[in-house]
## 1
Amino acid sequence: MISQETDPPATLDDVKGWFPKVDQLLFTWFLERQERGGQSGDLVELGSYLGKSAILMGRHRREGETFTVCDLFDSEAPDDSNQAEMKGSYSTLTRQAFEANYRAFHDTLPEIVQGPTSLILDHVQPGTCRFVHVDASHLYEHVHGDIRAARAMLPPEGIVVCDDYRSEHTPGVAAAVWESVAVDGLRPICVTTQKLYGTWGDAAAVQDELLDWLAGRDDAWHETQQVAGRRLVRVKGKSAARSKPNDVKGLKDRLAKSEKRLARAEEGLARARKELESVRNSVSFKIGRSATAVPRALRRDR
Ligand SMILES: C[S@@+](CC[C@H](N)C(=O)[O-])C[C@H]1O[C@@H](n2cnc3c(N)ncnc32)[C@H](O)[C@@H]1O
């Protein structure tokens, strides 16, 4: 990863953030599917950090569509728990850093709402969006509100993606997401390790298309499960290099990564050898001293 302070990012891999490859693949599929199907509408991201997912979403904004991102960036959070979360996880975040990253990939910035996501419906009209990414606060009350806002912004066939729906450190997100499924009519389409993709429209029709597409891919593994009487698709990423033996760039990347890992392992080994040597020296020093000491039992003055 390159230094965010000095070098502008050249690829999405250079942007710090939380946006796994399999989700990059799925965002692209969901957004392109809407474009192929002639579905237009605005794009919204709640929680952008340094722009990793926003940069990819921005590639799909078409003529006449608006892309809005909402993030606190370097502003105060609306409550103490949220402020603690900001301080713990995003203390160095600035709006300027987000903008610099975004501009490295796009000529124009998205619409930026700097403030709590509870403000989003003051800026985005109901039913005007096709895709909403919910990835801001991890607190139940906020995520509950964010998913309700997503429902208001999307027509039934729109897509919502909820981040951290199952992570150990985000039980509030899990509670809000599954509550929306159980109580508020959200229909899950698929899940990855990090995200749940859903709709308030016809999930089965989207799943049929998704399964067709996944069947032809060697960079993603999938299965289907039944959850509370509905089909759910589970998708996991596969290493592209492992799945495409003739992909020279993929193999070179893998080689470079393995070489880095080996160099780190060799450094660790050298440190461990040094430590072992110093322990050996101090042990033989102590043994040497006790060997020259006259055992108590043999002392004359007993
Ligand atoms: C997990 S990060 C987003 C990651 C990003 N989507 C990516 O691809 O790397 C969460 C973001 O939500 C923002 N955030 C946290 N609480 C918020 C709130 N109440 N309103 C708006 N933004 C919030 C944080 O500033 C942070 O940038």
## 2
Amino acid sequence: MSGCSDGGGGTSTAPPASPSTPAAGGPRIIIKDFKFVPASLLGVRPGAKVTVVNMDSVPHTVTATGSGSFDTGNIEPGKTATFVAPSKAGSYPYDCDIHEYMEGTLTVG
Ligand SMILES: [Cu+2]
């Protein structure tokens, strides 16, 4: 096997994170300093693709608690993952499988 060394090939031209700029591609969760930002992600469309960016230096996950509705699996440092929001409106708490004190809520509707 060859050609697997480019680490996912993200865009390298993205400017530094700018909190005031809405994400073009839809809802997004940033993981930084062992926190989910925003901790409560509101107004996510049912079935929307949610992007998760891990800006920490350790792996994290976004794992729905209880419902099992979504789970990114391990997101390595500096990597981005996506998951599909539940198709039913409601509030979906999640945590990090590795650091259970990390908590957030995804609200669909
Ligand atoms: Cu974590």
